[in-house]
Amino acid sequence: xTDNLEFLGQLDPDDPKQASHQIANKLRAAILTRRLEPGDKxxxxxxxxxxxxxxxxxxxxxxxxxxxxxxxxxRQGSGAFVRAQTQRAVELRPHIExxxxxxxxxxxFAGFSGETxxxxxxxxxxxxxxxxxxPESIAVRVLISDxxxxxxxxxRAETQSDDPAIRERAERITRRAADGILDQVAExxxxxxxxxTTVEVRMHRxxxxxxxxxxxxxEVFYGFYPVVERTVSIKGEPTAxxxxxxxxxxxxxxxxxxxxxxxxxxxxxxxxxxxxxLWSTIAYRYEG
Length: 288
Fold this sequence. Notes:
Elements: H1 19-32, H2 45-52, H3 56-68, E1 72-75, E2 79-82, E3 89-90, H4 93-99, E4 104-111, H5 115-129, E5 137-145, E6 155-156, H6 164-190, E7 196-204, E8 210-215, E9 219-224, E10 227-234, E11 237-244, E12 251-255, H7 263-279, E13 284-285
Helix pairs in contact: 1-3, 2-3, 5-6
């Protein structure tokens, strides 16, 4: 473990989260971005308590959170260590907020509707409005499926075929999310709260089977959309459809490291290349 622990930061006295959760968030971010490598020993409980100005019990609660998430192991008499295997499903929101701590923020999203991104962005942008986060620029690109075009999914379950009425329902969901992202980001620029804001939505005609987030070109979050059969209201009638369920799907995290040959670095680079290839070829402008 490096002796320089400045990357662990300090607690935010204005953050409503408990100190134990703040500490857990900072240690988690350090582990997932490989500032703390697998096998590294974490700072001792007294050292962490001193660094953050809290009681040891608070630190113990923070470490228990990470132990429950299987990010660390504790060895009696030796301390806490980063697990050798840290790939796991993660929550997106804390990482979106951490991305906004940079001076220049970039977020690329590819998937179905962008509802999760819209909701996660809302919390970070609220902190920009009140001055708790102060990026100089924000650039957001959103790549979504055009539900005005025939699609394999979502589909009518009975016939397993494309249905314009089902796509119309999906298009309304997509439009609400896309317009929300456009409005939220553009508003900060209009109010002069951020020096530069750019947000663009493009569409394509392929069915979405996974979601992808790229934060500051350094972190990727990737998850699959499960296909489920469920009943929804279509023109006032209950209709069984095969639908894509994106809410609460597991997201897996990859981050750039100092090693160009590392799995994380290669996955992030491949994700960026894939996104840019669609963005610059078959994708076209969303007309909100």
